[in-house]
Amino acid sequence: MNSSKLNILLIEIDTHLRLEYLDIMKVWGHTLYEVKKIDDAKKFLKKYSIDLILMNIDLHTKVDGIQLYKSFAIKPLLIYLTHIDDNTSIQRAIETQPLGYLIKPLRTQELKALLELAQLKINQKREEYNNISHISKNCSFDMKKETLYIDGSFIKLSKKRLQLLKLLIEAHGEVVSFKTIENEIYGECVPSESTIRTLIYRLRSILKEDIIKNELNFGIKIIVKDSSPDTCGT
After folding, report:
1. Same-domain status, 95 and 49
2. The domain boundary residue, chosen from 130, 146, 176
3. Looking at the DSSP assignment, which residues form a beta bridge with residue 80?
4. 178 SS3 class
5. Could you give the CA distance from residue 101 to residue 4 in angstroms, rounded to a whole number?
6. Upper half-sphere CA count for residue 1 (Cβ side, 13 Å)
7. For residue range 131-145, what is the model confidence (pLDDT) as tens digits?
8. Is residue 2 part of a domain?
């Protein structure tokens, strides 16, 4: 998808409004899908990549738009479309954290501003994702923030363990020699072999998975998926 365009799912019971939205989105260059039956919405979200949902709160069914959105396993960004402006409905809608709440009739400038906000949020998410190295199924590292997460929890690393992990990730699966580790992490403070072995062992223990591999006593590499320290420290 073009960085300035959105894939949008429209859930609207008013035929006239559906056609109006289709015309607007064509002009703005976004791709607009619509579901004819409310029950088809969940199936559609599983099948297609949707950035944003435009949905009427009053769907003329037992389940309104707020309840429907809560039932989705996949939850794209959301904008509500409605005639309803009572405080109770607004408070219920706020619980689903929508981008906006547009009172009909349609005001194109308000809608356009919300779509621009949606694109900004999506681009930010993509940028954040691109900064993250998924080391394994349960382990990820944010290169920009220099933070390690295991099973979704933040894991604090010592300075040297953090440096070693960055070296391995930046090597993209290539071997990092013990000499490189010595120079990059310890500098002029020449470590003993046991110090380097201890540093590697402790990082391995933190990652919990056998993803750091030794290469013929030359160095180590990390397979990325998608003792007491001496005076140099570990």
Report:
1. yes
2. 130
3. 55, 101
4. helix
5. 22
6. 18
7. 778 888 888 898 888
8. no
Query: What is the Cα–Cα distance from 176 to 173, expressed in whole angstroms?
Result: 9
Does residue 30 contact residue 8 with C-beta atoms inside 8 Å? yes
Tens-place pLDDT, residues 176-190 = 999 999 999 998 888
The pTM is what? 0.60
Domain assignment present for residue 228? The answer is no
* 3-class DSSP assignment, residue 177: strand
Taking 70 as the threshold, does the pLDDT of residue 230 lie above it? no
For residue 164, give both structure tokens. Answer: 């070693």
Average pLDDT of the chain to the nearest whole number: 88
Query: Are 136 and 125 part of one and the same domain?
Result: no
Number of domains in the chain: 2
For residue 227, the model assigns a pLDDT of: 39
Structural domain for 218, as ranges: 132-222
Domain stops at, among 98, 130, 162: 130
Q: Is the peptide bond before 98 cis (omega within 30 degrees of 0)?
A: no
Q: Which residue has the higher pLDDT, 132 or 114?
A: 114
User: Same domain, yes or no, for 121 and 146?
Assistant: no
Of 139, 134, 133, 189, the C-alpha closest to 159 is: 189
Residue 230 is encoded by which pair of tokens? 């001496």
What is the pLDDT confidence band of residue 223, given thresholds at 50, 70 and 90? confident
Q: What is the CATH number of the domain that holds 194?
A: 1.10.10.10
> What number is the average pLDDT over the span 71-78?
93
User: Residue 123 in contact with residue 196, Cβ under 8 Å?
Assistant: no
Q: Residue with structure tokens 């894991």?
A: 155
DSSP 175-193: PEEHHHHIIIIITTSPPPH
**Measured distance CA(218)–CA(178) in Å, rounded:** 6
The amino acid sitting at 145 is: K
